[in-house]
Amino acid sequence: MLTQTEQRLCDAAISARHNAYAPYSKFKVGAAILDEFDNIHLGVNVENAAYPQGSCAEAGAISAMIASGGTKIKRIAVSGVGTQLCTPCGGCRQRIREFASLKTDILICTDSQFKKRFNLEMLLPASFGPDNLV
């Protein structure tokens, strides 16, 4: 069961996914981040003919959040396609870790609906983050 805010976040990720630039893989991904001010920031994957110069949807959403003055990820939704869950890649899990707590919810959606909830600690156990540096 999703809260109203979580449903909005999933809907935003699903909608953003349609704008992804994936002419090579055809695997479009959208991401939506809810920041500490309750603003939603979107990102999409952007491929490049010179692999691996593309960027992930989660990285784009994080950049949009930072550019808008947000600094904390309260929740993130990721929308992909296919029969398998489209969870953030390893690099994006670490990027999310920089701005989120280990208990931050990551909502995984298909191209049309919410499928599963994880928290960051489930996807990135025993992680290294900013608190390790103090």
Mean pLDDT: 97
Q: How large, in whole angstroms, is the Cα Rg?
A: 14 Å
CATH class: Alpha Beta
Distance between the termini: 37 Å
Q: Per CATH, what is the topology?
A: Cytidine Deaminase, domain 2
Element-by-element helix/strand order = HEEHEHEEH
Kindly state the percentage of residues in helix. 25-40%
Write a brief caption for the model.
This protein is 29% helix and 22% strand. The protein is built from four helices and five strands.
Q: What this model shows, in words?
A:
The protein has 134 residues and is an alpha+beta fold. The chain has a single domain, classed as Cytidine Deaminase, domain 2 (3-Layer(aba) Sandwich). Strands 2-1-3-4-5 form a five-stranded mixed beta sheet. The longest helix is centred in the N-terminal third of the chain and has 14 residues. The model has no long low-confidence stretch (mean pLDDT 97).
How would the blueprint of this fold be written?
Layout: H1 4-17, E1 30-35, E2 40-44, H2 57-67, E3 73-79, H3 90-99, E4 105-109, E5 114-119, H4 120-123
Parallel strand pairs: 3-4
Antiparallel strand pairs: 1-2, 1-3, 4-5
